[in-house]
TrEMBL record:
Keywords: Signal. The lineage of its organism: Bacteria, Pseudomonadati, Bacteroidota, Flavobacteriia, Flavobacteriales. Residues 1-25 form the signal peptide. It comes from the Bacteria. It comes from Flavobacterium frigidarium. The keyword Transmembrane does not apply. This is WG repeat-containing protein.
Length: 548
C-alpha cells in the first residue's frame, strides 16, 4: 500500500506541474475568467488528498498565433506549435478545452476501430488514449506502441523485447522476442524474430502456437504463390506455411526472377536457372549469373569456360559467349574485351548487341560519346559507336562548361599543337596553340569523384604569348602576364614576377595589383598575403583593402 501511495503522490504532482506549465504558456485574454475547483483524490479509506486546479478554456488562436491545429472530428483537434517541425509535440483540444497538454508524440496511421483512439506517448512511455471517453485504454507503460490493424498492437516493453497486445491491454504474444511483424498475405500470422539466436519463425495468433519454429535466418514471401523463401545453415529453399520444403536441394543462393516462376540458383559454387518444380532451365554450370537484368530480360553471365555473354530467364542466349571480359556498369554502353582489344555492346535497347568491334587498345566510356585509343592515337565515337573523330590525336580530354553540365568540348592535341573540338568533334579554334588547358574555377568545389574537369575559361600559350580563350574557342584576352592560376566571376588570378593580382575580364583592367604572394578566394571572404601579413581584399578597389 505504501508503494501505491507514493506512486499516486508522484503522479499527482506531475499532473499539477504539467497543467501549470501549459497554462503559463498560453496568452490570457483580459476578459477571460478562470474557475478554480477543488478535486478530491482518495487513495484508500485512511488518506484523502485535496488538489486545487485552475481551469481555463483555451482558444488555440489566442496563443500569440504560435499554435496550429488539425481536425480529428467535429469536436476534437490536434494542437501543436507551428514553429517546431522536428520532434513536434502534440496536445488534444475538445470543444475548446485542452484535454491533453502538448507533451505527446503520436502514431496516427492504421486507425483503430471507431477511429477514436491513438497511440501516444511521452518519451519512451506509450499508451492508447480514447478521445471520446477521455481515458487511457492502454496505460503509458510501453517503450513503443504501434497499431497493426484489427485492434492488435505491437508493443515493446521497457526490457527491450516485443510482444502483441489487444485493445484491452491483454497479452496475445508474450514479451520475449527481438522483432514481431505482420506476416505478408495472411491475417493473424506474425513473423517472429528470436533475439537470442537471430532466427525467425511464424506464429499463428488464432491457434496460439508456432506453425514454423524459429529456425530460419531469413524469411520472405514469394509472389502470390503462398511459398516462402527461407535460409538456414543448410542454405536456401522454398517452403509452405506448414514448413514443408518445396525443393529437393538446399541452394547457396536462390534469387527470384520478376514476372517468372523461374529462379537463379547457386549450387556447389556453380550457377544456373531452375523452375518452381526444380526442372533445369539453364544448366547449373556457369561461373556467375548476374541477378539484375537488362530491359530486354537478359542477364550478364560467365559460362563454364570463363567467357562472357548474356542469357534470358528461359535459357535463350541473347549475346554470344565470346568475350574475355564485359564490364558490369549501369551504363547502356558496356565495354568488352577479346584478348587485348576493346569493343562495346549496347544494352537496354532491345537485345544486347555489339556496336563497336574489339579493335581498340582502350575505350573511355562517357554518357554521350566514347574516347578510343588505337596505336597510341586517340579518336572519338558517338554513343552509337560511329567514328566522329579519327584516331589521329596525341591526346583528347573532355571539359565541361562549368554551369551547363550537358555542354562540353574536347581539348585535342595533334602534331604538338592543341585545338578545341565541339560536341560533334569539329575544330572550333582558328589555329593550333602550344598549350590549351582549363583555368581552375575558384568558386566551385570539385569532388574527388569528378573525372571530367569543369571551367568557364581556358588558358592558351602560343610562343611567347599567354592569353584566355572562352569555351567557344575565341580569344578574349592576350596578356604579358607570366601565368594565370584561377578564375571566378569573370575575374582571373594573374601572376607577374612571382606576385599575384586580379584582372577583370569584363572591365578589361587590373583591379588588384600584382603585389601579393598569395590570393585566397573563399565564400567567407577574399584575402591576400604579403609575407606574414594578411589583407582582406576589396575586389572593386584595392586601395580599400584592409590589413588584418
Amino acid at each position: 500500500m505504501i508503494d501505491l501511495k507514493n506512486c499516486i503522490k508522484v503522479l499527482t504532482l506531475a499532473i499539477l506541474l504539467t497543467n501549470a506549465n501549459f497554462a503559463f504558456a498560453q496568452k490570457k485574454k483580459k476578459d477571460k475568467k478562470e474557475t478554480t475547483i477543488k478535486e478530491t483524490i482518495r487513495v484508500d479509506d485512511d488518506e484523502v488528498y485535496e488538489v486545487m486546479e485552475v481551469q481555463e478554456v483555451v482558444n488555440v488562436s489566442d496563443s500569440y498565433n504560435r499554435l496550429s491545429s488539425d481536425k480529428i472530428n467535429e469536436d476534437t483537434k490536434w494542437v501543436y506549435s507551428k514553429y517546431r517541425s522536428s520532434d513536434r509535440k502534440y496536445g488534444i483540444s475538445k470543444r475548446g478545452k485542452m484535454i491533453l497538454p502538448m507533451l505527446f508524440s503520436r502514431q496516427i496511421y492504421n486507425k483503430v476501430s471507431g477511429d477514436n483512439a491513438f497511440c501516444m506517448g511521452i518519451g519512451a512511455n506509450y499508451g492508447l488514449y480514447n478521445i471520446d471517453k477521455e481515458i487511457w485504454e492502454i496505460p503509458m507503460m510501453y517503450a513503443t506502441l504501434k497499431h497493426l490493424g484489427n485492434d492488435i498492437f505491437l508493443a515493446r516493453a521497457k526490457s527491450g523485447y516485443y510482444g502483441l497486445i489487444n485493445r484491452s491491454n491483454e497479452v496475445l504474444i508474450p514479451f520475449e522476442w527481438g522483432e514481431i511483424s505482420r506476416f505478408e498475405g495472411i491475417d493473424n500470422y506474425y513473423l517472429i524474430h528470436d533475439k537470442k539466436n537471430s532466427l525467425r519463425g511464424v506464429y499463428s495468433l488464432l491457434r496460439d502456437q508456432f506453425v514454423i519454429s524459429c529456425e530460419y535466418k531469413s524469411f520472405s514471401k514469394i509472389r502470390n504463390d503462398n511459398l516462402y523463401k527461407v535460409n538456414n545453415n543448410k542454405g536456401y529453399n522454398l517452403i509452405t506455411i506448414d514448413n514443408k520444403a518445396g525443393l529437393k536441394n538446399w541452394y547457396q543462393e536462390l534469387h527470384t526472377i520478376r514476372d517468372s516462376k523461374n529462379f537463379i540458383v547457386k549450387l556447389n559454387d556453380k550457377m544456373g536457372i531452375i523452375d518452381e518444380n526444380e526442372n533445369i532451365i539453364v544448366p547449373i554450370e556457369y561461373q556467375n549469373i548476374r541477378v539484375s537484368r537488362y530491359n530486354d530480360g537478359s542477364y550478364l553471365a560467365i559460362n563454364k569456360d570463363g567467357k562472357y555473354g548474356c542469357i534470358t530467364a528461359n535459357g535463350e542466349i541473347s549475346l554470344p559467349f565470346e568475350y574475355d571480359f564485359l564490364n558490369t556498369s549501369y551504363s547502356n554502353s558496356l565495354t568488352t574485351r577479346k584478348g587485348d582489344k576493346c569493343g562495346m555492346i549496347q544494352v537496354n535497347n532491345g537485345s544486347p548487341h555489339e556496336i563497336v568491334t574489339c579493335e581498340y587498345d582502350a575505350i573511355i566510356v562517357d554518357k554521350e560519346s566514347l574516347i578510343v585509343k588505337k596505336k597510341d592515337k586517340f579518336g572519338i565515337l558517338d554513343s552509337y559507336g560511329k567514328l566522329i573523330a579519327p584516331c589521329e590525336y596525341e591526346s583528347i580530354e573532355k571539359v565541361l562548361f562549368k554551369n551547363y553540365s550537358s555542354n562540353y568540348i574536347y581539348l585535342a592535341k595533334k602534331d604538338n599543337k592543341y585545338t578545341i573540338l565541339d560536341k560533334g568533334s569539329r575544330e572550333i579554334t582558328a589555329k593550333g596553340y602550344d598549350l590549351i588547358t582549363p583555368i581552375v574555377s575558384l568558386d566551385i568545389r570539385n569532388s574527388y569523384y569528378n573525372t571530367v574537369r569543369k571551367c568557364n575559361f581556358l588558358l592558351f600559350k602560343d610562343k611567347a604569348k599567354l592569353g584566355v580563350l572562352d569555351m567557344l574557342g575565341k580569344e578574349v584576352l592576350e596578356t604579358k602576364y607570366d601565368d594565370i592560376t584561377g578564375e571566378f566571376n569573370n575575374m582571373i588570378i594573374v601572376k607577374n614576377k612571382n606576385k599575384v593580382g586580379i584582372y577583370n575580364l569584363l572591365t578589361k583592367r587590373e583591379t588588384t595589383a600584382c603585389i601579393y604572394d598569395q590570393i585566397i578566394i573563399d565564400k567567407t571572404g577574399n584575402y591576400g598575403t604579403i609575407g606574414t601579413a594578411i589583407y582582406k581584399l576589396n575586389l572593386a578597389d584595392n586601395t580599400k583593402s584592409i590589413k588584418m
